[in-house]
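Components:
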Amino acid sequence: MVLDNKIEELFSEDRINRRIKELGEVFTNLYDITDEVVVICLLRGGFIFTADLVRNIKRNVLIDFMSVSSYGNETTSSGQLKIEKDISVDIANKHVIIIDDIIDTGLTMKEIKELLLKRNPKSIKTCCLLDKEEGRTVNMSVDYCGFKCPNKYVIGYGMDSCNSYRNLPFIGVLDV
Ligand code: IMP
Ligand code: MG
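Structure:
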């Protein structure tokens, strides 16, 4: 892969992998073998994190995808959430884990959680790889988080800048 040399690495591939193994163990221990668990991946940014995390959860899980948008091509939140693709699995009486790449203002996760709670799941846990706590504009604390993240626009490992860089195996900041 040709890497742009103006990327400063914040979280290495190794460090991400080690943390995901730990999170996988946490979720494995959270549920019983007979529990019905639905993992909901928020597209597109959450796709790599979800793919790696679910392979470390040693339970039978259903996996579905949801797509919302609020950012467009900008690097600050518009504060408007649009559901582009809903899940198709019925979550009533099931345990739900909502997975996103990064939480910034908290709007995305808060609104999705509120929407899914109306469908009567048995429980809902929220999980993100990165938490930009400083960016919060709404009251939203995530249940499980990989790392605290500085208040910078990050790319890689699923996260994009104008849809590029998602396939970087590490997370960094564009040094422009
Ligand atoms: P929030 O609604 O402000 O919490 O924004 C969360 C969403 O914005 C995430 O699902 C990401 O898709 C996107 N996002 C927020 N910060 C970043 C970033 O630093 N890099 C890439 N995407 C980001
Ligand atoms: Mg997103």
